[in-house]
Amino acid sequence: MRIGLWIDEEGRTVAELGAAAKAAEDAGIDRIWFSQRLGWDALTLIAGVAPYTSTVGYAVGVVPVYPRHPLALAAQALSVQALIGNRLTLGVGSSHPHMVEGMLGLSMDRPAAYVREYVEALGPLLTGAPTDYAGERLTARGQVTVPGTAAPELILAALGPRMLRTAGELTAGTTTSWATPNVIEDFIRPTIDRAAAAAGRPAPQVVAGACVAVTDDPDATRAWIRDHYGAAGSMPAYRAVLDRGGNAGPEDTAVVGDEASVAKQLQQYKDAGTTEFLFCPVGTDVEIERTVRFALDYV
């Protein structure tokens, strides 16, 4: 099981993030992840941070598909790929109704069907091949070429059965949120594996992202997670995966405890078929520092 590290970009400069990325690379972290939120554009940020390092991979988890046409995203992703020496993993996903419809005013009707069309159009474009795609709701005709680039690895954020089938059939794998080891072992892993096998593709990646806090007060940290991320429990896609695992909210999915306890919980993810565990450090400043130190030592 590989180890990834999410680096919180909010309120930090490129130089500060570059120093954090260099420390992660020196420790042996496999991939550094940035989020697409309401500040830094994640792909542009990766292009700025990558020169501080030389070998570590970079991933964005994830770019929402609705605001960016596949031709536009392919051009941006391939440009970043050229700038960082072919180290990019491009994660895409549907986002959520309160953002797509509430903030952007776009329709999110039948998101799984739209995402499938999007990935069908995007995949060839990332290889530099021309496409003449005409789906039910999406058209993409053209070609994007950037010299010296390999196709970025493409993964799809997937929590439901239709999205997991698309991820298995058309991408290198999936990244999850709020999915505990039992959900990965009993649902995510077998669903995506069946889809990949039926399509003649290799076993897909399952990247499990989880809030992690190395702490002596797990209850307080879970309360912190509930206060900061509890709203995720009301989002339909997240609510479904939480219910599947028998969890009331995001706080119930967190990996928290002292170093020995956290290591034991990571083993459960590995045993469940996780190919990469993505550390998302949370809690107080002291807990975050302790958690990052543990992640760097763990690899």
List keywords for this structure.
8-stranded parallel β-barrel, 11 helices, 20% strand, single chain, two-stranded antiparallel sheet
Give a written overview of the molecule.
This protein is of the alpha/beta class and 299 residues long. Helices cover 44% and strands 20% of the residues. The protein has 11 helices and 11 strands. The strands form 2 sheets. Strands 1-2-3-4-7-8-9-11 form an 8-stranded parallel barrel, surrounded by 8 helices. It has a two-stranded antiparallel sheet with strand order 5-6. The longest helix has 18 residues. It is globular and about 55 Å long.
Order of helices and strands: EHEHEHEHHEEEHEHEHHEHEH
Which structural class do you get from the secondary structure elements?
Answer: alpha/beta
Q: Give a short account of the largest sheet.
A: 8 strands, parallel, barrel
Q: In which order are the strands of the major sheet placed?
A: 1-2-3-4-7-8-9-11
**Percentage of residues in DSSP E strands:** 15-25%
Explain the layout of strands and helices.
Blueprint (H helix, E strand, L loop, with lengths): L1 E5 L7 H14 L3 E4 L7 H8 L7 E8 L5 H14 L4 E6 L3 H4 L10 H16 L4 E4 L4 E4 L10 E5 L3 H10 L2 E5 L3 H18 L6 E10 L3 H12 L6 H9 L10 E3 L1 H13 L4 E6 L3 H14 L1
Parallel strand pairs: 1-2, 1-11, 2-3, 3-4, 4-7, 7-8, 8-9, 9-10, 9-11
Antiparallel strand pairs: 5-6
What's a quick, concise take on this entry?
This protein is α/β, with parallel strands linked by helices.
